[in-house]
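Extended Data, panel c. Modelled sequence:
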Amino acid sequence: MQTSPDRHEYPDHWEADVVLRDGGTARIRPITADDADRLVSFYEHVSDESKYYRFFAPYPRLSAKDVHRFTHHDFVDRVGLAATVGGEFIATVRYDRIGADGTPATSPADEAEVAFLVQDAHHGRGVASALLEHVAAVARERGIRRFVAEVLPANTKMIKVFTDAGYTQQRSFEDGVVHLEFDIEPTDRSLAVQRAREQRAEARSVRRLLVPGSVAVVGVGRTPGGVGRGILDNIRDAGYTGALHAVNRAFAADQKEFDGIPAHRSVREIEGPVDLAVVAVPAEHVPDVVAECGEHGVQGLVVVSAGYAESGPEGRERQRELVRQARAYGMRIIGPNAFGIINTSPDVRLNASLAPEMPRPGRIGLFAQSGAIGIALLSRLQRRGGGVTGVTGVSTFVSSGNRADVSGNDVLQYWYDDPDTDVALMYLESIGNPRKFTRLARRTAAVKPLVVVQGAGSAPQGHAVRATRLPHATVSALLRQAGVIRVDTITELVDAGLLLARQPLPAGPRVAILGNSESLGLLTYDACLSEGLRPLRPLDLTTQASAADFHAALLKVLGDDACDAVVVTAIPAIGEASAADAELALALSSAARQVPGKPVLVVHVELGGLAEALSAAASTAPRTSPEAPGARRPRPSQQLPAPASAQQTDAPGTGTRLIPAYPAAERAVRALSEAVKYAQWRREAAQPGKVPDFDGVDEKGAARIIDRMLSRGQGLTLGTEETAELLECYGIAVRRAVPAFTPDDAVRAAEGLGYPVALKATAPHLRHRADLGGVRLDLADEEQLRRAYAELSGLFGEPEELRPVVQAMAPRGVDTIVRAVIDPAAGAVLSFGLAGPASQLLGDMAHRLIPVTDREATSLVRSIRTAPLLFGWRGSTPVDTPALEELLLRVSRLVDDHPEVVAVTLEPVVVAPHGLTVLGASVRLAPPPARDDLGPRTLPRY
């Protein structure tokens, strides 16, 4: 903490943990007067060359005056930040505010000189790039808009830091020095650079955990049965390819081995590097283990120990301290209370988990917070017979437990460009950062399927993240918009994942059905209709159909341009079922290989043999013997006739075509339906649309109105006139409603507006409730208006209670509702639905993240269940949906341009065959929530 007098208190919100380019972590924090000794020690470890580049002259040591200057800051005009590992400085950055003449200045001067110094041992880790992001954010907070820097031409690394940051800059050369100037407001390019660096760094941090060259298991019990002993056995029996160590402080001092594995009493005693430590000791001993690992240079931890946030307030604080301690040493954590991690790559073969069996290698990545869910996922993929075939295996598996540090976002960053993973399956009990997850999911889904079961839980205990205020259904809709395949159960998760891992994406919703059971074919047909697919008439091959008949029929439908996918239904043959199963499987696989490009699924009834035979028919690789080195010998009950495809079936380039088999038509069709919708999203994502510019938008005028309104208070709902004035700046006209506190007021209003008019009660309990009788329409003259006024007063009370208004009649049409809201976690969301029971009772609303493109506005209008009412349902006149889409885009633009507009509601919006009318509107203003996605890269705070 700063001890000298300062103009500002110590800004602890500037402290942050960051992931560096190599996957390690560092802590960035302000430099204070207490850091004098650290600064001197840091400087002593910097090479003479780096010192020369920093000061443009030989500068072997810092004077006392230098130390004072570089550690005493006012946190406004002079700021210094340090990157630390293990509490020691590894890099520093500072800025000094300057005036137009280059001399020290104070606000309102908005320019500052910036300079860096990085220890040579940490060059190439991206430390300076991370510091630049953070010092720029600090400077913007203090009113600085521009950085200048002077760099020697030979200091190419530092010049590259500035030029690669993505800011718009100017460069000049004078007196042997490169002079750089650049604005520090985020740009599209700087954000793109920042997010690309974030992806690479976070992916590498996960890779360090999943692909370790050496592993130490800390807490190995000397007797069988303990958690640590079990994990050690699982790693060894899986055939882990790296160095493995057993650690237990209770080992005898002279003990060198434990069950054939090198034994140590402490991590410190291990000779050579340790990349990953699996910690399985009681929670009270974990801090000592973390310190040992940090001092030894361990890169990451899997903490299976319990007793943390899941156990209450004391455990939550223990968990926060665990994360702080590990990050101080540059380590990342999976857990605590984790089930473990698995990597089936033949180059790694790591089973650092509580799963006693190594899953089959494959192309599916699995992530689950819960150990129980992780077990269920692994068992469903492993199971053969009685369900989906289980030959498609796992590439990597992460069960994060309390998710204190490494989260689903980090693993998604890893899977994005992991060549061994084709499909990602995730069970998320909660989404701690919906804005970031949606962004990562959209990018990942563009290259590989992402299937998610989303629980309705809150953020993990101990996490300092903003909670979303959006309903669970809204978050699910936003995930679908981002290309996420949202399913409800882990059975559906595996069903969809196996199809997507084994088969090509369908080109459309047309489904051919063929099989040897007419009834099963009809069930499949009905299931397709229920899922919104377009099934063709089922082809019944009869129960006498042979494998050759199936082969010929499948070849024919696959070659038919009228179908996009094929579902084959099969019932058991009487007699030698296993032989018939194998023959049928070979026939189907052969046909699928001859006409590739369309997905094929099989629905089988109690036909486990066919499920296995289908897998075997796709095999092209040699069978791996269970006696191979490092393989764990399965128990007799587990010795299924799994083909070699169980080891390599999913490897690219093997020429295999696995056909997934399902025990029920509904499960197969539901998985196919998700594949169809995902394929459609992929096609649309390839042409994402644009945010159009509209005439009649007065952005500056709207900003002046907002500033004027917010000067009255921190948050307020605008009045009717102010709302109309603000919306008019974006070309949104609100039909005037004139208050009428007496019948005479109503008559005068109607005469001014012109008959026919509507009379409405706007009291909160009557607003938008035409079903209660608080609205009278098409009042053609004074007599009708006075009679309606009397009726409303008689029904609902005095005008003070009714709050009646008079409004000119709008053309007849469909009543809709448009809303926009800024959620602190998810960001700005645009919503649309039909007004009344459809949205209020049935929740039939569609949602998109702002800013909305023209293509997204079009899909938004069409994605509600009641959309047919807009397009001429049952002979009605279609309404003007292009005008509706333009309104949605204008609202999106308003909220995107002005984040102070935290809520907009237009209700009702009457969409007529030609044009639309906004009859009611409300706008709420407030200081916008912080946009952490526009700031520098950080890990979640604790």
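The longest strand covers residues 88-98. This feature is highlighted in the accompanying rendering.
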